[in-house]
């Protein structure tokens, strides 16, 4: 069985078959892929390991770090402290955490690092919520033309 996938916008897709049609936001598509992988045995259940969407979310965050400094600082400044804490918990102890922290104000960096939740592992449900909220913010800022995503190879998305 094959489905047709239509692009409805930069982060919106429509999956269609004669009897089935659905429109998905990017983050919801990632969650769906993770659930399908779980059912096919390609992804551990959320209770038994790290689901694929956490890895995919990290990849998307890594892509964001290729933005120009002004856009990255705007994004990190606009995000709420709670969003930043949760996002940083998903990349804790990695090079990506350091790259994201460099675009955060010193005051926010200190607030994140002293937050009670910062040193606690993040549950998959919390990680999914964090990615959903953060990437919704990214999409709003892109649509408002306040930030610009840049392809590392030099092409704009």
Automatic annotation (TrEMBL):
Domain Flagellar motor switch protein FliG C-terminal, chain residue ranges per copy: 63-149
Superkingdom field: Bacteria
Pfam families: FliG_C (PF01706)
Annotated protein name in UniProt: Flagellar motor switch protein FliG C-terminal domain-containing protein
Organism: Oceanospirillum linum
């Amino acid at each position: 069985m094959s489905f047709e996938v239509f692009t409805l916008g930069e982060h919106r897709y429509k999956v269609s078959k004669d009897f089935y049609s659905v429109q998905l936001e990017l983050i919801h598509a990632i969650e769906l892929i993770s659930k399908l992988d779980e059912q096919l045995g390609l992804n551990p259940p959320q209770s038994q390991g790290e689901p694929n969407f956490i890895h995919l979310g990290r990849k998307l965050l890594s892509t964001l770090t290729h933005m120009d400094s002004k856009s990255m600082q705007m994004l990190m400044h606009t995000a709420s402290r709670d969003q930043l804490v949760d996002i940083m918990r998903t990349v804790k102890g990695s090079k990506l955490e350091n790259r994201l922290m460099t675009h955060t104000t010193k005051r926010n960096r200190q607030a994140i690092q002293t937050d009670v939740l910062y040193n606690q592992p993040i549950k998959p449900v919390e990680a999914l919520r964090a990615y959903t909220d953060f990437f919704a913010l990214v999409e709003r800022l892109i649509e408002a033309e306040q930030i610009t995503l840049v392809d590392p190879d030099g092409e704009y998305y």
